[in-house]
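Summary for the steering committee. One of the milestones for this cycle was to obtain a three-dimensional model of the protein with zinc ion bound, which we needed before selecting residues for the alanine scan. The sequence and ligand used are listed below.
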Amino acid sequence: MRLFSFASLRVSLLLVALAFAAFYTLHQYQFSRAWHKTLQIVVFPINGDGREATSRYIASLRSKDFSPIDAWTQREAARYHLLIERPTQFTLGAEVHEQPPILTDAANPWASLWWGLKLRWWAFLHTPDSASNLERVRLFVIYQQGEKNQALPHSLGLQKGLLGVVYAYADTRQAPQNNILIAHELLHTVGAIDKYGHNGLPVFPHGYAEPQRSPLYPQRRAEIMAGHIPLSRRRSVMADSLRRVIINPLTAQEINWIEAPEAHLPGSQKITLSAGLPNPY
Ligand SMILES: [Zn+2]
């Protein structure tokens, strides 16, 4: 009888913990997509290659290095007549001296799910301040020198837990493109979906900034969830800064800035929403 009571108590405690986690996640989801208050985003830098030059770069970082992203969300929000003037505010957090878990097989949904759980636990253990995470986004940015002709690992953003891991170059000249990657992962945390295909090319029309443009190529700007500017059907180039990146109506709908993307498209141009999109990473 005693044993039974003890087991019941453990089950009850577990159920309470699960219910708490579910409500916590639901509040994070609703708050981050309501856009009633400025969404706070904290960047926690990590030295990804252990090099001295990377340490110096991280030591030189300031919150204002991320303010171009705030200026960009402000500019894009104005285009969609969002009521809040400043949708986001980035600040720099303390350096983290641990490496987050790595997702080895992004194409495998079970591996992605398991990685997501491990990342949430890792972030719970290694967030270097004690501020509440209920209403803020944490982005762990892993800086490294980068090798010639070697791409950085794929950055990832998680909607559940408002978390992201971004791989970036520890180089001032790369800062504008780092900010594109950071903005991209931020938008994943609030519901946006990738809009490029397996070949890296933006998907038409979802991944285009101006799908109605005539002639279609070359495009002048990139859509944030594609990141690349299509120059032809088979060629695209990464945008050099957020000045050449926009949020298109489909992404605006995914992040809950607008209800119906059709209303924001010129003329008779319609985006087919039912077409298949790549996985959310
Ligand atoms: Zn992505």
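Key point for the committee: Helices lie at 2-34, 52-60, 67-79, 109-126, 175-189, 249-254.
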